[in-house]
Amino acid sequence: MMFGEQVPRHYRVMDPRTGEVLREGTRGPTDEWIPDEGGGPRVYICWGEG
């Protein structure tokens, strides 16, 4: 698990089988979980502000 200031707050959750973007947004607190109600495989992409 990755938490803290080193993890960028902007995120995107994708299904690696289809490439579909399932969710995207900005986490609030740095220890907040990225929400996902799905049950399949997921890829979490986090990036910093440009």
Note down, in words, how this protein is organized.
The protein has one domain. It has a three-stranded antiparallel sheet with strand order 2-1-3, with no helix packed on it. 0% of the residues lie in helices and 32% in strands. It contains no helices and three strands. With 50 residues, it is mainly beta. A hairpin with a 6-residue loop joins strand 1 (10-14) and strand 2.
Strand order in the largest sheet = 2-1-3
Structural class: mainly beta
Q: Helical proportion?
A: under 10%
Q: Give the total of beta strands.
A: 3
What's the structural blueprint in terms of helices and strands?
Elements: E1 10-14, E2 21-26, E3 43-47
Antiparallel strand pairs: 1-2, 1-3
Labels describing this entry:
50 residues, 3-stranded antiparallel β-sheet, 0% helix, 32% strand
Question: Can I get a quick summary?
Answer:
Helix content is 0%, strand content 32%. The protein is built from no helices and three strands.
